[in-house]
Q: What sequence folds into this?
């Protein structure tokens, strides 16, 4: 976490520097030499010069106007923001694809996107693994509470082994996966258990809907 927090602090500082650079780029600092500036009649001092659209300054023969150009620094700061975001994505294992900063046109195929999400997949799996045993105990406790309360339709005896199945944490083409699972299970290539693990929510929803249709028929 320390490396991620450091990168976030650098990102905040870079945004502050970029804001200052954009201010001097949009309203640049101008140096005038040999300009005929308006004079304040009360004090006899030159009036402050402001840059406005359509402003005209009268310069002498040797007059000169110099503009401080900070656009190069602004471009460098913007590039540094992208660099820090890449560091945050790498250090946190969220990846640029997970943060949504990856250009979709830069990926040649969906398989390349799946490989880009590899570190995020391992991070999510590690975070879920830490509580896998606790979820098993939780489901066993729920069953025992139903048995102790003699809930209707709940069998007595030993608790059934149960575990929590997580769905995909990234967007997937569920219609295509569901069609593939149904064909594979129907052809005997995949077992029902493997099909449920592939797309549990869609498969269960489809099977429940088919049962309701058969009951209505």
A:
């Amino acid at each position: 976490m320390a490396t991620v927090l450091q990168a976030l602090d650098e990102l905040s500082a870079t945004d502050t520097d970029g804001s200052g650079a954009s201010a001097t780029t949009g309203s640049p600092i101008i140096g005038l030499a040999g300009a005929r500036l308006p004079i304040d009649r009360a004090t006899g001092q030159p009036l402050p010069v402001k840059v406005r659209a359509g402003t005209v300054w009268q310069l002498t023969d040797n007059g000169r106007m110099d503009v401080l150009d900070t656009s190069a620094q602004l471009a460098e700061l913007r590039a540094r923001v992208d660099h820090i975001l890449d560091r945050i994505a790498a250090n946190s294992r969220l990846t640029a694809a997970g943060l949504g900063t990856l250009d979709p046109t830069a990926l040649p195929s969906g398989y390349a996107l799946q490989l880009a999400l590899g570190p995020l997949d391992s991070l999510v799996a590690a975070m879920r693994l830490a509580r896998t045993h606790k979820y098993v105990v939780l489901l066993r406790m729920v069953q025992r509470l139903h048995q102790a309360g003699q809930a209707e339709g709940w069998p007595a005896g030993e608790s059934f082994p149960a575990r929590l199945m997580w769905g995909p944490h990234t967007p997937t083409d569920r219609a295509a996966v569901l069609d593939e699972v149904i064909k594979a299970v129907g052809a005997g290539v995949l077992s029902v258990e493997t099909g449920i693990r592939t797309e549990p929510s869609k498969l269960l929803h489809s099977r429940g809907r088919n049962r309701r249709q058969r009951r209505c028929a």
